[in-house]
Batch of 2 targets.
Target 1
Amino acid sequence: MDPRRKDYLATEAIYSGNSLRIGDEFVMHDWERPLIRRMVEDLKLTPDDRLLEIGFGMGISASILQEFRPASHTIVEPHPQVLLQAERWKSARVNVQLHPGYWQQLDTGTQRYSAIFFDPYADDMEAVDDENLRFLQFAAQSLLADDGRLALFCIRPLLPLEYQRVMFEHYRRVEISSVKVAPRDTANPTADLDGHMISVVLHK
Ligand SMILES: C[S@@+](CC[C@H](N)C(=O)[O-])C[C@H]1O[C@@H](n2cnc3c(N)ncnc32)[C@H](O)[C@@H]1O
């Protein structure tokens, strides 16, 4: 989400057992779990990793990422109600830092991460693509250590050409694997592809 969209933070976050909506929009749904798990597995975390996660949502990825016990796990999240959930989730964990705000507001300094899990939210496809492409470039230039890896949540079930251009300009390797999902309640991004989405991991 673009930080200039002031309405986002004031819109109510509604957690049900299997989804998170912000206002009327589904921001996360439990059907995405197999894709999230595969993305985390493809990131191949080790206990030496300094991990940055963008977007807490329902904490599904955060919990799976924690199974790999990274040395540190920093989570960037702007929405105040989502942050409250993240605070509760964090309470029993020692290696997690919450960073309130948007990734676009990160003060990069000299801090570098060895692994990034990127799964924010925007409410139209043009904004999603714009944000993804900006982040891919920003992460390569200002966040990732050399040899670092980045898992990108890709709502598009095939990788658009523009993504490939940015990826191959800034990363040395792009790993894509196919994941079967069963969307329900939300729009179905896999309608033409028989339930397949892609897990994308980039290597700097
Ligand atoms: C799709 S959800 C994340 C789902 C999460 N990976 C999970 O497994 O539950 C997106 C989250 O990103 C947050 N978000 C939206 N725009 C953001 C931004 N620019 N920077 C950081 N977080 C953002 C939203 O508030 C929301 O909590």
Target 2
Amino acid sequence: MMNEAVDNSLFKDTESATATEWHGTSSRDARWSIYQGSSAFVLAKLPEASVHCVITSPPYYWLRDYGVDGQIGLEETVEAYVKSICGVMDGVKHVLRPDGLLFLNLGDTYYSGKGKSHGLDRKSNKRRFGLRAVDKSGGLGIGLQRKSIIGIPWRVAIEMSARGWVLRSPIIWHRENCLPESVADRPSRSYEHLFMFAHSRKYFFNKQPLIDQKVEEDMWTIAARPKAGNGLDTAPYPDELVKRCLQIGCPEGGAVLDPFVGSGTTTRVAVSMGRPAIGIDLNREFCIYSANQLRSL
Ligand SMILES: C[S@@+](CC[C@H](N)C(=O)[O-])C[C@H]1O[C@@H](n2cnc3c(N)ncnc32)[C@H](O)[C@@H]1O
């Protein structure tokens, strides 16, 4: 096992901000940094093998428009989407320590193929989708029949395994009390995947919190969260999900990273649990919101 000290070159020492970076230290002495930019670009600048644990939820395939150029999630093909996510995860692997863990939350999308525009993005009133790739006829290039679920999480997980990640546990996040979908010809979905990937075969893991909390170990029932504060449309995951990942997958004081930080759930929960944290997002408004939250800790 490697030394658990945090790599000092990961953080700036003082409270500071530029046009695209925000840095600070919490009252409990946990340092934090937020970077605005594409995650692949920012990750390439972070020091190798410096982060203990990564917890993240990338944009799902064609579910939301974050209104920023260069965003992931609106690729024309499933293959291109899988390649985008796995490309970022290659960058994560470079920054993650050999004994580190990655918790990757991914949801799925249906292939409608109905040939008509989806119209308003009901989850985000900011922009209209045109004709989404998942509504075009022609099977998305992977031979799907209309109405099929695409199987996005496993397509990504299989490609990541091929790129050297060790998939140790496909945890089910059962989204307790989530709103039922308005569909009559299939069961409404109530879970998402949370893949626990190890960088290498030997890694930090503490099973005790799962035992102490008397919870199902690989099926986590945690209530979904509607929206972050300020009406930000980031599809935030619940604090409890991040907390549990940290309890089992990050040593005390270990450095935490979220390359798709959105409203800053990962960084806020990590810093409030005394772990230094780094967040990256393309969206400036989300970065400022995340940094402001961290400043108050
Ligand atoms: C599902 S949201 C993350 C939500 C976050 N877990 C939270 O609790 O608020 C995905 C985020 O990825 C960001 N994003 C999309 N493409 C990106 C890219 N290429 N690089 C960095 N961030 C990106 C979006 O702006 C959005 O904030």
